[in-house]
Amino acid sequence: MVDTRNESIVTEFILVGFEQSSPSTRALLFVLFLALYSLAMAMNGLIIFITWTDPRLNSPMYFFLGHLSFLDVCFITTTIPQMLIHLMVKNHIVSFVSCVTQMYLVFCVGVAQCILLAFMAYDRYVAICHPLSYAQIMSQQACVRLVSTAWFFGLINGIFLEYMSFRNPFCRDNHIENFFCEAPIVITLSCGDPQFSLRVIFADAIVVLLSPMVLIVISYARILASILGRSSSSVSDLEDPVDV
Q1: What kind of architecture, by CATH, is found in domain 10-234?
Q2: What is the per-residue pLDDT for 5?
Q3: Which of 6, 11, 76, 93 has the most crowded Cβ, counting Cβ within 10 A?
């Protein structure tokens, strides 16, 4: 819907990602995505239940894994249920508030996942390269702080990206060529010049994706170096002559 009092202001969006698909194609996609969504929810739910209830899995690795599964549930639930509904109904209208909320959740959860994956790589590095200090470094308090840090940066970065996405009013076409409110598409519908916001979001995405990736690569590179160093040391010990 568009208000036409002083100027046209978009109050809702129309998702047109599947409008060109035939009913049979939409039905097939509905069954496929419903099956995949149900499987993902069941597997993540099982991981969450086991890691949070089984005392034998009371370790940092499973603590992080449970939170990662919870983030995965949040991420797919943000977009997939809406897509399934739109595959079956003709009304593809999404309110402005719903679109804002969906984009914020995608930003927030996506960033938190990236950071948590980096912390999980660091956990493996400490466990393998510093096993004697592992319990002290990766204490329960430290794990809680790391997970809280991932959520905090996700929330803050989500607010920043949300501001960049909606800092201009929307008075153009309200049709979104996708099955959910994707940031670059939504930004191009704003009244002002979208290029600045797009560049900022692109730069933010590079930092958010590359920073954890660098930490992950460094962690596993040091793990590999440590394992290879131990292997070569063991081989050298076996090859040394034994005095009798």
Answers
A1: Up-down Bundle (1.20)
A2: 43
A3: 76
